[in-house]
Design a protein that fits this description.
about 300 residues; alpha/beta; Rossmann fold; 2 domains; Zinc Finger, Delta Prime, domain 3
């Protein structure tokens, strides 16, 4: 757990609970995406399942080794089936949780992206949270806890995660990827290493967006469309790319470009509403270009 980045207070809290043997039946790990909530949950689970009495997790016992190999009989990680965790998945978990531990003193279940659970799944899970077996430990990991029923949240100890400091993200990317993040790039990470890793994969696209925006005054609309053509192929990552566009516009020190922020926000809403993708990107660049070239905007 010491090797995990950021949220030192969370580390101390979890380690103290284990040391004092005051581990609750259910927890809610909540915070923005990409800050390591699932990594913390897995390390917490590994520590609970470790057979060593003093230094946990030892990494050497049968329990630690089988956990590392993803085949521990007393551990299960549940993830969305498609876009949601469904009631069938919760029912299967309930069948397994009724069985006593095979190797460890606990049975630990992580519900990754618990906020995607359907209402039926949440109502089903509630029964287990109300009367869990004495050996069961359930860890809910959520980026948007508002999607969870209040009755679910009230039965969990909430562990809030804070965004990771920009300097720690910068050091992490330098050390592991030899990547120097600019001020704009750190800003769009918003405390999330997950976003920094997406950026590492799409760095040429991020830099292309910045170049287009910096040179908007010198380009006609056709040039902009041609240079932004790559966006039509990045549907999977478009929200991350639009977030970066927002940051670049905001830090441009140009009133016209700052005014264009509203068009990017509008494009994000259209995409989330499943509007025609290509038309949304076309309209976005047209409005941003017109805002910068005021004479066309006035016409």
């Amino acid at each position: 757990m010491e090797e995990l980045i950021g949220n030192n207070k969370v580390k101390e809290t979890l380690q103290t609970m284990i040391k004092n043997q005051k581990v609750a039946h259910s927890y809610l790990f909540s915070g923005i995406e990409g800050i390591g909530k699932t990594l913390f949950a897995r390390e917490f689970a590994k520590t609970l399942l470790c057979e060593e009495q003093k230094e946990k997790p030892c990494g050497k016992c049968k329990s630690c080794k089988s956990f590392a190999e993803n085949n521990h009989p007393d551990f299960m990680q549940i993830e969305p089936d498609g876009k949601a965790i469904k009631i069938e998945q919760i029912r299967y978990m309930q069948e397994k949780i009724a069985e006593k531990p095979i190797r460890a003193n606990y049975k630990v279940y992580i519900l990754k992206d618990a906020d995607t659970m359907t209402r039926e799944a949440q109502n089903s899970l509630l029964k287990t949270l109300e009367e869990p077996p004495v050996y069961a430990r359930i860890l809910l990991v959520a980026s948007n806890e508002n999607k969870l029923l209040n009755t679910i949240k009230s039965r969990c100890i909430k562990i809030p995660f804070l965004p990771i400091e920009a300097e720690k993200i910068k050091q992490y990317m330098q050390k592991n990827y030899e990547m120097e993040l600019s001020e704009n790039e750190l800003a769009v990470c918003a405390g999330s290493i997950g976003k920094a890793l997406v950026m590492q994969e799409l760095l040429p696209q991020y830099r292309q967006i910045e170049e287009i925006i910096q040179n908007l005054e010198k380009q006609d609309l056709l040039d902009v469309f041609q240079k932004a053509e790559f966006l039509y192929k990045e549907k999977e990552h478009i929200l991350d790319l639009l977030d970066y566009m927002l940051v670049v516009l905001y830090h441009s020190k140009s009133r016209a470009k700052i005014n264009a922020i509203s068009y990017v926000e509008d494009a994000k809403q259209r995409i989330l509403a499943n509007s025609n993708y290509d038309m949304t990107i076309d309209y976005l660049w047209m409005r941003v270009w017109e805002e910068v070239h005021e004479k066309y905007n006035r016409c």
